[in-house]
Design a protein that fits this description.
This protein is an alpha/beta fold. The protein folds into 2 domains: 86 residues, 60s Ribosomal Protein L30, Chain: A (2-Layer Sandwich); 151 residues, SPOUT methyltransferase, trefoil knot domain (Alpha/beta knot, 3-Layer(aba) Sandwich), CATH 3.40.1280. Helices cover 35% and strands 18% of the residues. It has 10 helices and 10 strands. It has a 6-stranded parallel sheet, with helices on both faces. Helix 7 runs parallel beside helix 10. It starts with 13 loop residues before the first helix and ends in an 8-residue tail after the last helix. It binds S-adenosylmethionine. S-adenosylmethionine (SAM) binds next to strand 8 and helix 10. Keywords: Methyltransferase, Transferase. GO terms for molecular function: RNA binding; RNA methyltransferase activity. One of its GO terms (biological process) is methylation.
Length: 261
C-alpha cells in the first residue's frame, strides 16, 4: 500500500487547509516550483498531489536535498480534489501554497548597503510571462532583487508560474520610481552607450523599459547612464527578458555572480 503522507486529522483535510491559507499565500504550481521555493526557504503550509509516489520519485531523481521535507509535506488527494484547487492541472500533479514574504523585509533587503549584486528594475512592464522570466534570471544570477514600477503585480499567479518558484530566491517588490533603492542607475536603451565599454558595479540598479514603449520619462530622469546592447541598425529592439539576460551576463563577466561549481 502506498503511503498517503501526513494525516490531515478530522475536518481539516488538505482542501480545508488550502482554503484557510489561500489569502496570505501564493500558488506553487507543479513539482519544480515547490522544489525551488523549499530550497530558498519558503514557508509552505500546505502541499498536495494526486500522485505522491510519482512526486517522491521525481524528488529522488531531481531534488534529493529536499526529498525529506517533501515527504513530510505532500498529502495525496484525489485527482478531482487536486483539479478543484488549480486552474489548470500540472503534468506533475503537485500544487502547494507558500506564504508571501513580508514587504517590510523585502524593502529592507533592497535598501541594505553595501550591495553585492545589482537590483533589476522593470519600468512599467506589461507582460506577466516576461516578468516571471526576469525573476528566474535574477535568481540564477544571484541578483539582490527585482523591482517593478507601474500596475503589474510581480506576485501575480502567472508571474509566479513563470518564475518557477524562484520568487523566494530573490526580493520581488513593486515601487514608485521615486522610491527606488540607492545606487547608480544604468538604464538600458538602444540609444545609449555600448555596454561592452562599461563595467557594471555590484551596487547598480539595472533598469529596463516596457515592452511597448520603453523607458518612462521619470525613469530616464533618475538614470545615471543610458546603456545599449549590441544590435544591428535595422533591428528595433530585443525582447525585455532577453535584454535582462544579456545585461546580467555582462555584469557577471566582471566576476560578481555565483561561481559555476
Ligand atoms: C521590447 S524593448 C522596448 C521597445 C519599445 N518599443 C521602445 O520604444 O523602446 C524592452 C526594453 O528592453 C531593453 N532593450 C531592448 N533592446 C535593447 C537594446 N538593443 N539595447 C538596450 N536595451 C534594450 C530596453 O530597456 C527596452 O526598453
Amino acid at each position: 500500500m502506498t503511503d498517503p503522507g501526513p494525516d490531515p486529522g478530522p475536518d481539516c483535510g488538505p482542501p480545508a487547509a488550502w482554503h484557510r491559507n489561500a489569502g496570505r499565500c501564493v500558488l506553487l504550481d507543479g513539482f519544480h516550483a515547490l522544489k525551488h521555493a523549499l530550497r530558498f526557504g519558503a514557508e509552505v503550509p500546505v502541499a498536495v498531489t494526486s500522485d505522491r509516489a510519482g512526486a517522491l520519485a521525481l524528488a529522488d531523481e531531481l531534488a534529493p536535498d529536499v526529498r525529506e521535507v517533501l515527504a513530510g509535506l505532500l498529502t495525496e488527494v484525489s485527482r478531482e480534489a487536486y483539479a478543484s484547487l488549480v486552474a489548470r492541472p500540472h503534468p506533475t500533479a503537485v500544487a502547494a501554497l507558500a506564504v508571501r514574504p513580508s514587504r517590510a523585509a523585502g524593502l529592507e533587503a533592497l535598501a541594505r548597503t553595501p550591495r553585492r549584486a545589482p537590483v533589476v528594475v522593470l519600468d512599467q512592464p506589461r507582460n506577466l510571462g516576461n516578468a516571471g522570466a526576469v525573476i528566474r534570471l535574477a535568481a540564477g544570477f544571484g541578483a539582490t532583487g527585482v523591482v517593478t514600477t507601474g500596475t503589474l503585480d510581480p506576485w501575480h499567479p502567472t508571474v509566479v508560474r513563470g518564475g518557477a518558484g524562484l520568487h523566494f530566491a530573490t526580493v520581488v517588490e513593486r515601487l514608485e520610481v521615486a522610491g527606488l533603492p540607492p545606487g547608480p542607475l544604468f538604464a538600458l536603451d538602444p540609444e545609449g552607450e555600448d555596454i561592452r565599454g562599461l563595467e557594471l558595479p555590484d551596487d547598480a540598479l539595472l533598469a529596463f523599459g516596457s515592452e511597448r514603449s520603453g523607458l518612462t520619462p521619470e525613469l530616464r530622469a533618475r538614470a545615471d547612464r543610458l546603456v545599449a546592447l549590441p544590435m544591428r541598425p535595422q533591428v528595433s529592439s530585443y525582447n525585455l527578458a532577453t535584454s535582462v539576460a544579456m545585461t546580467l551576463y555582462h555584469w557577471s563577466a566582471g566576476g560578481g555572480a555565483p561561481r559555476v561549481p
